[in-house]
Design a protein that fits this description.
Number of strands: 9
Radius of gyration: 27 Å
Low-confidence stretches: none
Structural class: alpha/beta
Strand content: 5-15%
Oligomer: single chain
Mean pLDDT: 91
Shape: globular
C-alpha cells in the first residue's frame, strides 16, 4: 500500500511540536550579595534607566537642595538664607511656631561632691512624661551666681544617668568620658542631661535600644509626626526652663551632642538663637553622601527618623551646620572635608566669624598628612563599604566617644574667656 509521502515531514513537525512543549529551562539568575558600581549606570543610548534603583540613585545624586549654602554669593544673603533654613526645618520637624513655656516638676534633690543633682519631669503633651537631670555646682548655689549651662544629649543607646555620671545599668563604651553633664558641673557650669527618644530609661528596659527606637520611629511615622521633632521640641522647652533658672545665665546656654545626640543638638541650634554655642561630638558627614557612596552592601541604611524629603531642602548635616554661623561651634571628631567641613568653614568665613569654628580630629588623624582623602567628594563616590566611608571621613571608630579634654576647655574659652 502506498502512503501519502509525508512521512519524513511528519516526523519533523512532530519533533518541533514536542520541542515546543518541552522547552529547555532557562538558566536561573545567580544572585550576588553586593552591588557593583556599574549597577548604578545605564547602558541605554538615550540615557534613560530601566533599572529603577539606579534611576533613584542618579536622581538624588543630581539634586541640588533648595536651600543649599552653595547658592549664596555674599554675606548679605546670610540672614535671609538662615531664616529660610530655620522655617523649613521647623516645618519638617513639625515644631510649633512658638515653643510653650512649661512647668518642670522637681522630683528629687541629691547632694554630690561639689554639685547638686536635681531630678525633674515635665509634661509636653497629654499622657507623656519627659525626665531630665540638672547638675548645679555648689559654688553657683552658695554664691547665687548665674553661670553657663550645657544641655547634653548622649550617643545611641546611652542613658540619662550615664550623662550625669550616675550608676548606669545600660552599658557604655567609655563611661568616664561620656558623662558630659558631669564634666560640665566639675568646671562650674550647669550640666543638663536629656535622653534620645525611646532609649534606656525612656525605652523598654530589657529590650535592645535599636528595636525600641525603630518601633518608636515607626509609630511616629504612622501618626504623621517627626521622630526628631519630638525630641528637639523637648530640648527647646528645656532651654526655656534654663533661661528662668536662678543659677543659669540665659545668654550662655550651649547644646552638646555625642554621636546620635548630635542630631537634636544641631537641629535645636538651627531653630533657636537661645543656643549660644554648639558641641558637635561626631564626625562631620552628609546623610546623602553616605546613601550615595556606600553602595557595596545590600539594602543600605534607611534612617526612618529623618524627616520625609529632607534632602530636597538641604544637605544634612553640612548646610545646617553652615546655618549655625556665626555662633561658636566645635567639631570634635573632624570628618570628611570636601563639601562637608569645607562648606562649614566657608560659611563661617563668609560670616566673618572663622575664629568661632573649632575643628578637632581624632588623634590618629591629628596631622594633616594622615588625612589622605581630603580631595574626595563622597557625594560623587560609589561602591564603598561602611569601612571605606569611615576611612575617607578620617574616623577612628574605636575612639568614638565624648572628648572632655577637647570640648570642656573650648566651652570655658567661649563662655568664660579661659
Amino acid at each position: 500500500m502506498k502512503t501519502c509521502g509525508f512521512g519524513r515531514l511528519s516526523v519533523v513537525v512532530a519533533a518541533a511540536f514536542l520541542a515546543g512543549l518541552v522547552q529547555a529551562e532557562p538558566a536561573k539568575v545567580r544572585f550576588r550579595n553586593t552591588f557593583q558600581p556599574e549597577d548604578f549606570e545605564t547602558r541605554r543610548a538615550d540615557g534613560r534607566f530601566d533599572n529603577h534603583m539606579a534611576f533613584a540613585w542618579d536622581y538624588v545624586r543630581r539634586m541640588v537642595p533648595e536651600y543649599s549654602f552653595d547658592k549664596l554669593k555674599d554675606a548679605s544673603e546670610l540672614p535671609t538664607w538662615r531664616a529660610k533654613v530655620r522655617t523649613k526645618l521647623g516645618e519638617l520637624l513639625m515644631l510649633p511656631e512658638k515653643i510653650p513655656e512649661l512647668e518642670f516638676k522637681l522630683l528629687a534633690e541629691e547632694k554630690r561632691d561639689g554639685y547638686r543633682l536635681y531630678r525633674y519631669e515635665f509634661y509636653p503633651e497629654e499622657r507623656l512624661a519627659v525626665a531630665i537631670l540638672v547638675l548645679v555646682p555648689e559654688s553657683a548655689i552658695s554664691g547665687r551666681a548665674k553661670v553657663p549651662a550645657v544641655v547634653c544629649m548622649p550617643g545611641s543607646g546611652a542613658s540619662l544617668n550615664s550623662l550625669a555620671g550616675e550608676p548606669d545599668e545600660f552599658g557604655n563604651h567609655y563611661p568616664a568620658r561620656n558623662r558630659q553633664a558631669w564634666h560640665c558641673a566639675q568646671v562650674g557650669m550647669v550640666g543638663v542631661a536629656i535622653e534620645n527618644p525611646a532609649t534606656a530609661e525612656s525605652g523598654v528596659r530589657d529590650v535592645n535600644h535599636f528595636a525600641t527606637q525603630a518601633q518608636f520611629a515607626r509609630m511616629m511615622t504612622l501618626a504623621g509626626r517627626s521622630n526628631w521633632g519630638f525630641m528637639v521640641e523637648h530640648v527647646l522647652e528645656t532651654i526655656g526652663f534654663l533661661k528662668r533658672h536662678p543659677n543659669v545665665d540665659a545668654k550662655r546656654i550651649a547644646v552638646s551632642g555625642m554621636s546620635l545626640g548630635c542630631i537634636p543638638a544641631l537641629y535645636a541650634a538651627v531653630m533657636s538663637d537661645d543656643v549660644a554655642a554648639v558641641v558637635y561630638n561626631d564626625f562631620v558627614s552628609s546623610w546623602a553622601a553616605n546613601a550615595l557612596s556606600v553602595t557595596k552592601r545590600l539594602g543600605g541604611s534607611v534612617d526612618a527618623r529623618r524627616p520625609f524629603g529632607f534632602h530636597r531642602w538641604f544637605d544634612d548635616e553640612p548646610d545646617l551646620m553652615a546655618a549655625v554661623a556665626p555662633r561658636p561651634m566645635i567639631l570634635a571628631e573632624g570628618g570628611a572635608w570636601k563639601n562637608c567641613i569645607e562648606k562649614v568653614r566657608k560659611a563661617y568665613r563668609l560670616a566673618g566669624a572663622e575664629a568661632n569654628l573649632r575643628i578637632a580630629y581624632y588623634e590618629k588623624y591629628a596631622e594633616p598628612s594622615t588625612r589622605k582623602y581630603e580631595n574626595v567628594d563622597l557625594h560623587e563616590a560609589k561602591g564603598l563599604t561602611d569601612g571605606d566611608y569611615l576611612l575617607m571621613s578620617n574616623v577612628d571608630a574605636g575612639q568614638h566617644g565624648f572628648h572632655p579634654d577637647v570640648n570642656i576647655p573650648w566651652l570655658l574659652e567661649v563662655f568664660c574667656g579661659k
